[in-house]
Amino acid sequence: MGAALITGASARLGKAMALYLAARGYDIAVHYHSGEEAALTVVAEIEGMGRKAHAVQADLLNEDATSVLIDRAAAALGQPLTVLINNASIFEYDSLESATLDSWNRHIGSNLRAPFVLTQAFAAQCPKGARDDAGEPVARGLVINMIDQRVRKLTPEFMTYTIAKMGLWAFTQTAAQGLAPDIRVNGIGPGPTLQGARQSKDHFDAQRANTVLGRGANRSDITAALGYFLDSPGVTGQLLCVDGGQHLAWQTPDVLGVE
């Protein structure tokens, strides 16, 4: 099928997408920052599925490391990459009052600058598109940016993270324009899917229960969205919010009880 790089692929949704792509016949470059043991475990699982896999370490806040990651991944797998999933993310709380230059740089660097640099390098090595039986172009490359449903439902919370994800959504659309017809670029916007490291179970459960559908998403919902983009050659520049309808929430204190 081809070869893919997933950033932040040693755990959580990155791991789920790596295993999903391997099951679909892709060889996988498993990117990690500090969790080498976890990354090697994912590599072993993929190799157990009969696919080639390699762990590649990089600090995505380091421009030099980021700029060569695509070439390192392609070399490790012995072929050009045809799928890039920009999944790795820093997600830390700040507000307009508490944001600092450091929080700005960490969120912009991990959530926007790194995907931009990786997409540039990915496009430079991705095979050109083909043509189908009707003579129309078919993209060979696919970039998936993991965004966030909050770009559809803005709040002042997680200020610099939100700004970075809004930038990533803008980049998804403009890159889709700039890289067509050889590469498609789309986004997935998770909502409450996996419990956060600083989040209590009660808070996470309540967050899922208070979505429009009364439920959040699961790993399988995220991989299903990935599968849709893989199987849809006519789709680019789109965002699928896989969030139980969280971005549509309307029963908020400002409207409840108002005629």
TrEMBL record:
Keywords on record:
Oxidoreductase
What molecular functions are annotated in GO for this chain? glucose 1-dehydrogenase [NAD(P)+] activity
Recorded E.C. number(s)? 1.1.1.47
**PROSITE patterns linked to this entry:** ADH_SHORT
Q: Is Metal-binding among this UniProt entry's keywords? A: no
The protein's matches in Pfam families, at most eight in alphabetical order, are given as:
adh_short
Q: Where is the signal peptide?
A: none
Q: Entry's InterPro entries?
A: NAD(P)-bd_dom_sf (IPR036291), Sc_DH/Rdtase_CS (IPR020904), SDR_fam (IPR002347)
Report the family membership: Belongs to the short-chain dehydrogenases/reductases (SDR) family.
Name of this protein: Glucose 1-dehydrogenase 1
